[in-house]
């Protein structure tokens, strides 16, 4: 799949149906990924980076929305990046818990360098991302919101016309309902989900929340 540039300084690394949407955010001084993908995403990631005149070592940090394998295994490519994840999901990666991560035996597990905290601000000039805890898909799921640009990176909590699975370990339908209600109060011009299509437009995102409320809750 070709490299796409859905918003200024935001690049979508989309590789396959199994791997997550990974988003490269180009700051003025640093570059950050939001999620990475499966190990099969590593080769196309290298090609995407080459198109942007970057190398894997130019990625300074990876911000993870949650701790499932299809969002973290390609971290292996970015061995110089600082890895961020919620403390709850991090515990399952430290234990190499396949029931939680859904990873196969002998899978790659990244070392988590820093725990994300509720309302934490991650500065990446000219971006400023607020960490929003959104349990439901996993207990430690988070989203990243850029208030000035009205961008929401929703991981596997919220998608186009659907929501994240809650039947996996630590998932909760009650919690994801609360999380989506919290997200619906935000102004969202761009929804960047962990899988599937990006939603652009304030009206389009409001209609997406309306559809989800009518069909899931």
Structure commentary:
The chain is α/β, with parallel strands linked by helices and 217 residues long. The chain has one domain (4-216): Metallo-beta-lactamase, Chain A (4-Layer Sandwich), CATH 3.60.15. 24% of the residues lie in helices and 27% in strands. It is built from six helices and 15 strands. The chain has a seven-stranded mixed sheet. Helix 1 links the parallel strand 4 and strand 5 (61-63). The longest helix has 15 residues, at 202-216. The mean pLDDT is 96.
Overall form: globular
The value of Rg in angstroms is 16 Å
Helix percentage? 10-25%
Quote the average pLDDT.
96
Largest sheet: 7 strands, mixed
Q: Count up the helices.
A: 6
Give the CATH level 1 class: Alpha Beta
**The CATH topology is what?**
Metallo-beta-lactamase, Chain A
The CATH H-level homologous superfamily: Ribonuclease Z/Hydroxyacylglutathione hydrolase-like
- Structural domain count: 1
Through-space gap between termini: 34 Å
Percentage beta strand:
25-35%
Please give the order of strands in the largest beta sheet: 1-2-3-4-5-6-7
How many β-strand runs? 15
Order of helices and strands: EEEEHEHEHHEEEEEEEHEEH
Assign the CATH architecture.
4-Layer Sandwich
Provide the structure class: alpha/beta
Uncertain stretches: none
């Amino acid at each position: 799949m070709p490299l796409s540039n859905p918003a200024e300084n935001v690049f979508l690394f989309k590789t396959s149906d199994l791997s997550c949407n990974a988003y490269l955010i180009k700051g003025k001084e640093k570059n950050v990924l939001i999620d990475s993908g499966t190990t099969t995403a590593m080769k196309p990631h290298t090609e995407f980076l080459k198109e942007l005149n970057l190398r894997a070592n130019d990625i300074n940090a990876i911000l993870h929305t949650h701790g499932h394998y299809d969002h973290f295994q390609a971290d292996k490519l970015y061995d110089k990046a600082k890895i961020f994840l919620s403390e709850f999901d991090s515990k399952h990666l430290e234990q190499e818990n396949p029931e939680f991560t859904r990873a196969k035996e002998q899978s790659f597990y990244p070392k988590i360098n820093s725990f994300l905290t509720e309302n934490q601000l991650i500065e990446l000039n000219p971006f400023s991302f607020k960490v929003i805890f959104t349990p439901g898909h996993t207990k430690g799921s988070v989203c990243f919101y850029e208030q000035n640009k009205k961008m929401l990176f929703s991981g596997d909590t919220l998608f186009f016309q659907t929501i994240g699975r809650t039947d996996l370990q630590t998932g909760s339908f009650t919690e994801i309902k609360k999380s989506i209600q919290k997200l619906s109060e935000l102004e969202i011009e761009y929804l960047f989900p962990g899988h599937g299509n990006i939603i652009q437009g304030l009206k389009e995102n409001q209609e997406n929340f309306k559809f989800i409320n009518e069909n899931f809750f």
